[in-house]
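Lab channel / #folding
Pinned by the channel admin:
"Please post every new chain as: sequence first, then the C-alpha cells as a reply. Keep commentary short and put observations after the output so the thread stays searchable."

First post following the new format, from NK:
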Amino acid sequence: MEAQIIKWIQSFSHPILDDVFQVVTMLGEELFIIAAMALIYWVFNKEMGKYLCYSLCVTLCVNGIIKSLVKAPRPIGEEGIRSLRVETADGYSFPSGHTQSSSTFFFSIAFWIKKWWLFLIAAVLSLLVALSRLYLGVHWPRDVIAGLLLGIVLSALSYFLYRKVKNRLLLFGVTLIPLLTGLFLPDLGHYVRSLGLYLGFALGVLFEERYVNFSVKGTALRKGLRFLLGALCLGVLKFTLDLLGDSIPVQLIKYTCISFFGLGIWPLIFTKLHL
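Reply from TO:
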C-alpha cells in the first residue's frame, strides 16, 4: 500500500519537479537549519536563537533514538520506486529526519512569535518537505507522518519547558537525562551526533551567558560581517574536525565542539572584535 502511494506520487514526475523537490527537501537539511539558526542567534534575536537550538537538539536526539530502536529500511532500491538525492538518506527510515527537523524548526518559530499566519506557513512548508521525501523515493508515508507529528509535538513541548523552567542548568540537565537513554542502544548512528550538538549547545549557552553576554545590536554592515565571519569559522572548524575520522567518539567530540563554538566561542570573538 505504501509503495503504491509513492509510485502514484512519482507518476507525476518531471525534470522540473525533480529540481523543485530537491530544493524543497533542503529545508530539512543540516546546512539550511544551522545557517538559519546561526543567522537568528548571531544577528537578530539571541534568545529566540537559543530556544530554536534547544528545540532542534531535542528533536534530533529523539529522532536518532527512535531510528535506532525501530531500524526500519528505506524504500531505496524497491522495485518500481526511483530514488533521488540518496546522499541525504543515510541511516534508517523511521521517522523521517528531514520532516521532523523542518517541522520542529518552523513550528518552533511559530510558537515563539505567536502569529496565526506563521503556523499556517509552518504547516505548508513542513508538508512540502514531507512530500519531497516521498517524491524523491527516500521515505515511506509512515516515516513522514511520524516525523511531522513528532516535530510539532516536540516543538510545543520544548517551547513549554524553555518558557517554564527559568534555571538554564536545571532545564538542560533535566532534558539531558531522558536523551541519554540513547547511549544504551546498540546502533548509535546519527544519535551520537545529535547528542554532541545538544551537549555543545548547553555548554555554549551557559558559557555565553556567564562570560560573554554578547549583543545582536549593530549596523547592517557589522551584522553582515558577524554572520559571514561566524559561518566561515564554523566551516573551517568542521572541515578540520572531519580530518579526525568518523568513529563514534570522534563524532561526539566533533559535534560538541561545533555547537559549543557556535554558541559560545564565536560570540566571544564577535565581542572582542566589536562586531
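NK: The chain has a mean pLDDT of 89.
TO: also worth noting, The longest helix spans residues 46-70.
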